[in-house]
Amino acid sequence: MKISRGTIPQLLFLSFSFCFVVLAGESENCSGRGTVVLVLGFPHGGTSCTAGVLSILGVPFGNTFCNKKDRKHPKGTFESHEMDNLDSAILQELGMGTFRPATLGYYTKVSPEQWQSIESRLRALLAPRLQDGKLVGIKDPRIAMLLPFYVDAIRSFGYDIKVVTVVRNPDEVAESLDQKRHDMHRLLCRYLASIVFYGRELDTIVIGYDELLSDTERIVGRINEHIPGLRSYAEARQELDAFIDKGLKHHHA
């Protein structure tokens, strides 16, 4: 059977979602004193838009985490320079990079000393935000490759973890990155595989970037079910309409 390129992202999305449906019964909740919402996905894959929506609904990404803005993200990335620099350094130490993900299970080769060093640096970065037991949002797509370390660091503060993963057509991602990467489908699969593998015990919801733009009310409803206590679509509609500018999606597969 011949599968068109346009069909591949849909297959990826369905397969990825199915993995978490199967694993849902294994997800853990440590009943901590607060909750961290991790926004995961692929760089330029809709994570900034998703974080913006979550922020409007009531997930605080924090004033200490600078909302970087650039040409590609005029409304901000909801990331911090400090986290960006630290994640880059850790990935480099582990022989990885944004477009150079490691094979699954790499962490089994990390020495106890190196693991402790990485986790202590993550704890120092997160400590100012994980003190009051409230809801906290954290976003960097590359955390997908560092999930074992982030999970340990976050849980050391007694926090629960909820994951919101966004999936976008890899051809659109390549266009957004201003370059045609012939291995973009493979890279996207590696990111998603990391989230499934390392996050199989985490409470996770998967959303599509296109659906977030075109059917915002339904996606917000799913987010409300996943993270109780947030504002509803009706309550936040005006702000959501102002934030979700469909014209910002310049690239279509």
What does this structure look like?
By secondary structure, the chain is α/β, with parallel strands linked by helices. The chain has a single domain (8-248), classed as Rossmann fold (3-Layer(aba) Sandwich). The chain has helices at residues 7-23, 47-57, 81-93, 112-126, 147-155, 170-176, 184-198, 209-214, 216-226, 233-243, and strands spanning 34-40, 135-139, 159-167, 203-208. It has a four-stranded parallel beta sheet with strand order 2-1-3-4, with helices on both faces. Helix 3 runs antiparallel to helix 4 (112-126). It is globular.
List keywords for this structure.
alpha/beta; four-stranded parallel beta sheet; disordered C terminus; 253 residues; disordered N terminus; single chain; Rossmann fold
| SS element count, helices | 10
What composes the largest sheet?
Answer: 4 strands, parallel
Uncertain segments: 1-9, 21-26, 249-253
Structure classification: alpha/beta
CATH class: Alpha Beta
Widest β-sheet, arrangement of strands: 2-1-3-4
The CATH topology comes to: Rossmann fold
Number of domains: 1
Gross morphology is: globular
- The sequence of SSEs as H and E is HEHHHEHEHHEHHH
Which second-level CATH architecture applies? 3-Layer(aba) Sandwich
Mean pLDDT: 82
- Proportion of residues in extended strands: 5-15%
What is the count of β-strands? Answer: 4
Give a brief rundown of this model:
This protein has helices spanning 7-23, 47-57, 81-93, 112-126, 147-155, 170-176, 184-198, 209-214, 216-226, 233-243; strands spanning 34-40, 135-139, 159-167, 203-208. By secondary structure, the chain is of the alpha/beta class.
